[in-house]
């Protein structure tokens, strides 16, 4: 299902909170605002809120994707066009968790776009503002985040029953293949660079409650809002989304650690298309890269075959490899999110990507030498950037 129409056209303007002001959060917040929705950035601290106000209460978007897009000649020959020029989403509000309000206003529509490793903490900061009429969109790389939130905050069926009416929101899970990054340039804290055009898909996560509660209006509102942006968003059913999440996990598990460890852009993982003018003629490099890709994708496919047997026909090693190479090519100029994390000395999402696959493999008796090695090397890289024991 594809949803469209601006907020103004639809005659609704429901406020949307976005938690996570990284590259992805800012991209979604700016596009939602651009579509006419009132947007509030839910920032970490009052200091961030003050900095946001001082920078004009606006989000900047730089359309870097134009540099590698196949239609760049056509777009650029038409002169500067509104769709490719840098733009700003203005009149964006910001707030921070306040410790002193006993019954703060409920948040009905929340996009949670933090990094996977920050999501539980972020959810905790906002949990008291959510209720059964709220909808939370989870937009993380990796897998297992929804389950971790359930385990941490709504741990037992008994508690579900107690909390049902008052507390548990509806969850929408999203997957995003738009490339974006934030640069550490001063004055650009609230600017996101849209480096590769992708798409995003969303589905309502079936409730664990029995009987399932009826969907709140906020679920429809937020899906309509996301569908009205220029981010090529579609709404699908949970089983289709689950399939897409598994493919995206495979792309993140193969591209992200290698680009983070080798400090290279995504395109280096795919051989150049035939007849391309690529400068690199090192056949040995392409052959070993191809062999890495094949073994990594075969391992992921073997894990999926045991963990999700009903999907196995679709998630063959070849289907996974084709998808990963496609993503590597379409985001060829991207520095993957893991490379960005490692370069800035931040913790990475490897625990929710290769770590998740290693745990899933163990659970189903599938050996995972490739994912274990990638996981270990990224963990080593993280540790080495935080400890100076051998300096
Ligand atoms: O999702 C990504 C990421 O960097 O995390 C990919 C698809 C690999 C694009 O860079």
Explain this structure.
The chain has 14 helices and 12 strands. The model is unreliable at 1-5 and 8-12 (pLDDT under 50). It has 391 residues and is of the alpha/beta class. It has 2 domains: 12-236, NAD(P)-binding Rossmann-like Domain (Rossmann fold, 3-Layer(aba) Sandwich), CATH 3.40.50; 242-389, N-(1-d-carboxylethyl)-l-norvaline Dehydrogenase, domain 2. Helix 5 links the parallel strand 6 (109-112) and strand 7. The strands form 2 sheets. Strands 5-2-1-6-7-8-11-12 form an 8-stranded mixed beta sheet, sandwiched between helices. Strands 4-3-10-9 form a 4-stranded mixed beta sheet, covered by helices on one side. Helix 9 (238-262) packs across helix 11 and helix 9 (238-262) crosses helix 14. Residues 141, 177, 179, 251-252, 255-256, 266, 327, 331, 334, 336-337 line the site of ketopantoate. InterPro entries: 6-PGluconate_DH-like_C_sf, 6PGD_dom2, ApbA, Ketopantoate_reductase, KPA_reductase, KPR_N, NAD(P)-bd_dom_sf. This is 2-dehydropantoate 2-reductase. Residues 242-382 form the Ketopantoate reductase C-terminal domain.
């Amino acid at each position: 299902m594809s949803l469209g129409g601006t907020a103004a056209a639809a005659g609704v303007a429901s406020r949307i909170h976005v938690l996570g002001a990284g590259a992805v959060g800012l991209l979604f917040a700016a596009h939602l605002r651009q579509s006419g929705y009132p947007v509030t950035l839910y920032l970490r601290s009052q200091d961030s809120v003050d900095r946001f106000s001082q920078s004009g209460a606006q989000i900047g978007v730089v359309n870097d994707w134009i540099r590698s897009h196949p239609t760049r000649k056509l777009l650029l020959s038409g002169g500067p066009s509104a769709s490719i020029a840098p733009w700003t989403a203005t009149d964006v509000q910001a707030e921070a968790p306040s410790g002193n309000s006993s019954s703060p206003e409920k948040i009905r529509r929340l996009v949670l776009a933090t990094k996977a490793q920050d999501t539980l903490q972020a959810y905790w900061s906002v949990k008291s503002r959510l209720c059964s009429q709220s909808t939370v969109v989870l937009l993380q790389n990796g897998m297992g985040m929804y389950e971790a939130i359930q385990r941490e905050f709504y741990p037992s069926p008994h508690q579900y029953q107690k909390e049902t009416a008052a507390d548990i929101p509806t969850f929408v899970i999203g997957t995003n293949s738009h490339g974006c990054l934030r640069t550490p340039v001063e004055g650009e804290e609230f600017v996101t660079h849209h480096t590769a055009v992708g798409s995003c898909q969303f589905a309502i996560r079936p409730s664990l409650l029995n009987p399932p509660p009826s969907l709140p209006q906020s679920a429809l509102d937020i899906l309509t809002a996301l569908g009205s942006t220029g981010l090529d968003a579609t709404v699908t059913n949970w089983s289709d989304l689950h399939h897409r999440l598994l493919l995206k996990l495979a792309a993140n598990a193969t591209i992200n650690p290698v680009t983070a460890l080798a400090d290279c852009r995504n395109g280096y993982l795919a051989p150049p298309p035939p007849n391309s003018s690529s400068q690199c003629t090192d056949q040995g490099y392409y052959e070993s890269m191809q062999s890495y890709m094949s073994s990594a994708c075969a391992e992921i496919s073997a894990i999926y075959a045991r963990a999700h047997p009903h999907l196995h026909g679709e998630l063959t090693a070849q289907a996974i490899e084709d998808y990963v190479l496609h993503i590597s090519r379409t985001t060829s100029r991207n520095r993957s999110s893991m490379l960005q994390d490692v370069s800035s000395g931040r913790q990475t999402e490897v625990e929710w990507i290769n770590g998740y696959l290693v745990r899933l493999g163990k659970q189903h008796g599938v050996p995972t030498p490739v994912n274990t090695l990638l996981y270990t090397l990224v963990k080593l890289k993280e540790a080495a950037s935080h400890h100076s024991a051998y300096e």
